[in-house]
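Pinned message: reference record for Hydroxyacid dehydrogenase
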Amino acid sequence: MTDERAGGTAGVAVVMGADELPVVMPPDLQKWLGELTGREVRVIPVRDGLGLLSCQAVLDGVDVLVTGWGCPPLTKAVLDAAPQLKAVIHAAGSVKPLVTEAVWERRLVVSSAAEANAGPVADFTLAAIGLAAKGALPAAAAYADGGRWPAFRDRQGADGRTIGVLGASRIGRRVIAGLRASTAGYRVLLYDPYVTDEEAAGLGAERVDRLADLCRAVGIVTVHAPGTPDTYRLLDAEHLALIPDGGTVINTARGSIVDTEGLERECRSGRLSAWLDVTDPEPLEPGHALLRLPNVLVTPHIAGAQGNEGRRLGTYAVEEAGRWVRGEPLLGTVEREILDRLA
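Predicted structure (tokens):
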């Protein structure tokens, strides 16, 4: 077929890992993608990485590229094989592993399904906060050892109803909203240097100027900042030491933001607990202390990609491709200027 936006014969390619493909973009969504875009759909399960992507016969004539986990970076060599490409629609969250400088030089439209990904991660986080506020991990460990855990217990300094949110990202904002809607009566403190007092109040949180002040005042710290050089080890050993005894660290953002060794020491001592869906390194080596401690729960990066979330991401990407073809504004547009501040 001919399409004016593509400048010639138009096609759409779906490029993602062979294991992820049937979950994120099953045959019925592939069919719907073709119907919404009016294009031939080429499905490319990635098993051998760049060698497959750089094949001219695969990407020639493609104007819309739907990507996902397992898609290699879009380097100049890859893009040279797709001279008609106009839009990259990512059926996952962060586009940082995918987008290179060559993408911006080509002035390609980039969209991400991060908004669709945010809801499940926020739900996961809120569940972890609720359990952490009840001291569920140490309680379960004591119970398993035959010990009695009192129904009402002094938190020994950590106020389980005061929650510190590190980062007002799209997920962080959803978490704040969920906490404010809870009947538990949470108090929410926010640390984010890009948010004003007025903006924080509008979200339902109290902004603090220093991360140290947040750590001293809360019983639970939940991490929602992007993984950047500025946030590397932001929650370091010194900040972890400021969290009151009995406190909890929850990380569903990026493992690099938390000092792994410092957290291990605090949890090994029993002073803190942790709920970690991400770690640094990821995965942790077998036998790592954080995998064995009774007051730590490590899950394999499932907060935004378990249950029906994969299909949700695929559906978002299909609808976004349809919007692009119809010339409508995209909901998940990623701009070069803000990429560094995104997760």
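Pinned by admin. Summary line: The mean pLDDT is 91.
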